Amino acid sequence: MVLLMRDEYVGPEPEGASIEEQGLGWKNSFGSGVGSDTITSGLEGAWTTAPAKWDNNFFENLFNYEWELIKGPGGAWQWTPKDEAAQGTVPDAHDPAKKHAPMMLTTDLSLRMDPIYEKISRRFYENPDEFADAFAKAWYKLTHRDMGPRTRCLGPLVPAEPQLWQDPVPDVDHALIGEQDIAALKGKCFESGLSISQLVSTAWASAATFRGTDKRGGANGARIRLAPQKDWEVNNPSELGQVLQTLEGIQEEFNNSQSDGKRISLADLIVLAGCAAVEAAAKNAGIDVQVPFAPGRTDALQEQTDVDSFAVLEPTADGFRNYLANGHQRTAEELLVDRAQMLTLTAPETTVLVGGLRVLNANVGQSELGVFTKRTETLTPDFFVNLLDMNIEWASSTSEDVFEGRNRLTGEIQWTGSRADLAFGSNSQLRAIAEVYGCDDAQEAFVSDFVAAWNKVMNLDRFDLA
């Protein structure tokens, strides 16, 4: 009956309605079209005796009555109390002279019938104040989950204590390093024996977890040293552990040598070391550049880190590091664009970062896939020069999603690349950008643009700098 009335009296959905409806759609021509003439999904009724009032009546009705399945007034199957006392306790939505029994859906009754949910529901039924507090916290989480850390919340109603789901980090409680300290620490990083590739890879792995969609992730907190990030396959756990151990030694030595309370966090040192590595790689290419660095990050504790919540941030595809785990239905280039969007990067920023990270040898496991250069750890636009070289003919290989670039004359394999790599020569928009960096006079512009994009990623979670 409901379906027949819907077909006869309810107009098309907003997108299908005529233009003058201005997005309203589902226009009801039955009777007055509103109030008691409203055509619903077929499920009709209310759960409590005072639907517009906060109380514990939902759980009271759930546990105090026995329920039976009926076909409701709207024609759909729903549950009604067997108890006579429940009749006439719920006001009608439109007519104050009418009263009804409360209703429940099967999903509602599952909160009582399921053995696990029953314990939770009964606890709330017996402890209304606890239920009100739990609801307030859950509602706060639901409506603020995508806003990032507590520092981004404004107003007198913001809870004083940050919540675990807000990924809290400690406040800065010490003096920050200055220019002389920065220069000295850069030197210590290179004296340690860590390579440009290792420093760049670690900084990128730390910062590139950021998601612009919900403002989570990023370098602040140095959670790359904590579970679960330290064990992610994409982060090369064995090598990561060695790099972090070395950086922690540098951090400890510096902090212990200070008499004025000045300290550097590991989160800051990871980013600073990556910036120093980019500067060194640019110098290897004959260009002196200073990569911006702003101290002020702090180190989160394991107890401030919800392991299960952070597990969903694990990259199973990162085209910037030429990493693609098994099981993806979407292509590597599509997943690269998705990752770039999460990092709030533009097409030019994405292009220059991929090209730079390839020649800096920042692939997962230092794979040679897409490393189109003979001079790694040198910040050159070689990736674009060699990708666009017309002397190279690309063809698929025996390995899935791996392509071979062969010399057209000799047939010798010059390079191997992924779909994410070849997208910069195949996609018309990305190729247009790649050709800019592939020009003979692009070296300085390439370094400058890479540094700017790198700095953006390193500071994506620095809301205190905005």
TrEMBL record:
Q: Which GO terms describe its cellular component?
A: cytosol
Highest taxon, organism lineage: Eukaryota
Task: State the Pfam families in the record.
Answer: peroxidase (PF00141)
The keyword Membrane belongs to this UniProt entry's keyword annotation: no
Task: Look up the record and name the cofactor or cofactors this protein needs.
Answer: heme b
Question: Which is an annotated GO molecular function term of this record?
Answer: metal ion binding
What reaction does this enzyme carry out catalytically? H2O2 + AH2 = A + 2 H2O; 2 H2O2 = O2 + 2 H2O
Q: Which InterPro entries match?
A: Catalase_peroxidase, Haem_peroxidase, Haem_peroxidase_sf
Q: Which UniProt keywords are given for this protein, alphabetically ordered? A: Heme, Hydrogen peroxide, Iron, Metal-binding, Oxidoreductase, Peroxidase
Q: Name one GO biological process term.
A: cellular response to hydrogen peroxide
Q: CDD domains given for it?
A: catalase_peroxidase_2
Hey, which family's this protein in? Belongs to the peroxidase family.
**Protein name in UniProt:** Catalase-peroxidase
Domain named Plant heme peroxidase family profile: residues: 198-438
Q: Which Gene3D superfamilies is this protein grouped with? A: 1.10.520.10, Peroxidase, domain 2
